[in-house]
Amino acid sequence: MRSTMNVNTAKRHAVVESPYGPLTLVATDGVLSGLYMTGQRHRPADESFGERVAAEEAPFPEVVRQLAAYFAGELTAFDLPLRLEGTDFQRSVWDQLVRIPYGDTWSYGELAARLGKPNASRAVGLANGKNPVGIIVPCHRVIGASGGMTGYGGGVDRKVRLLAFEAGDRD
Amino acid sequence: MRSTMNVNTAKRHAVVESPYGPLTLVATDGVLSGLYMTGQRHRPADESFGERVAAEEAPFPEVVRQLAAYFAGELTAFDLPLRLEGTDFQRSVWDQLVRIPYGDTWSYGELAARLGKPNASRAVGLANGKNPVGIIVPCHRVIGASGGMTGYGGGVDRKVRLLAFEAGDRD
DNA sequence: CGACGGCTGGCGGTTTTCCGACATCAAGCC
DNA sequence: GGCTTGATGTCGGAAAACCGCCAGCCGTCG
Predict the structure, then answer these.
(1) Is B139 a catalytic residue?
(2) Which nucleotides of chain C are near protein (any atom < 7 Å from a CB)?
(3) Which residue range or ranges hold the Methylguanine DNA methyltransferase ribonuclease-like domain (chains A, B) (predicted)?
């Protein structure tokens, strides 16, 4: 065990309600760096989210505002500063995710091809699963080449609901 | 490769002359964290030493002063703040090193015994070799149980000279 | 005898390597 | 339609390798 550690990045988090259950919002140095659902795979330990604060503290109000508009079907493109921490490859994948239009879907292979690595579809799946900011970075818009849901950190059922909602199903 | 890295610890270094050749002094956050000789084993890459500054900048003058006194035979115990970064075990070993009196020597096994791990003598040798602050943290005062020099990051010849000097040989 | 040299086996922390597991997909072959 | 194979990046854990050691055992040689 190393005895010196990295305590320089100031993290804080808040928890808000949503149609998909409680969402944990994490901010690093005042910029949104995480959005996690309950029971989500690869969700970091709660201790790593820093101090819990009220959702009224910056930068959370603006995040909550846009999320509410999205869930109301009135917002189709988030406009928020993000702090995405990961490997170069992961960041390149996440950068592509935000280019997938609302209501549309890509396959893992398509996304891999856009990166110039047509064979990296499997690696794309992995990086997708590590997306730290669910919903806002729309990893749910990536599905199997033959239309299968194949997987979702927050559970495939949530993925189905998100896609159906974006497709216009309002039941 | 990770794309976010640790740039929080401000490192700087200076190079000074000595009877044992040039010494590279490294400071982390204004505290001495390294002293390396030329050709030393396990010496980190020079890039990791940060910007090179004049030996007149803090905290180096005090370090140089005490080193000069040591090489003149007038100082037998350094009194400097140190920043020793390593594993728990390594730090426990280095903590013992500074307790070896000037002119004295311990065996690797003796040092291991002081840690309550009488069988860890070999691991002590390893940790000894990783000592980041040569001379001031006197890893040269540890020798084989049967008196052999067995090894030294800066070369066994330097170890022999250091020990002879501390024993009072002034030729 | 005793001192000394060389071999051997076991010791323990750290580093390196390796392997499997995955939110895939196309091609090739039944 | 099914089933196998290979390419891909990351992570976690297992295993092995690396050593600034040391005690015990056995020779050899004065």
Answers:
(1) yes
(2) 10-15, 22-26
(3) 12-84
What was the pLDDT predicted at A8? 54
Residue from A84, A13, A81, A91 nearest A47 by CA? A13
Of A1, A3, A91, which is closest to B3 when you measure between CB atoms? A91
DSSP H or E run through B157: helix B156-166
What pLDDT does A10 receive?
86
DSSP letters for B58-95: TTHHHHHHHHHHHHTT--SS----B---SBHHHHHHHH
Strand D positions with any atom < 7 Å from protein CB?
Answer: 6-11, 18-23
pLDDT-flagged residues of chain B (< 70) = 1-8, 171
Whole-number Å distance between alpha carbons of A121 and A113 = 8
Q: Which residues on neighbouring strands pair with residue A27, listed in sequence order?
A: A12, A32
Chain A residues with CB-CB distance to B3 below 8 A: 85-88, 91
Predicted TM-score (pTM) of this structure: 0.76
Q: Which two three-digit tokens encode residue B19?
A: 């009877």
User: Domains in chain A and their CATH numbers?
Assistant: 2-81 (3.30.160.70), 86-166 (1.10.10.10)
pLDDT of residue B4: 46
**Residue A83's closest chain B neighbor by CA?**
B4
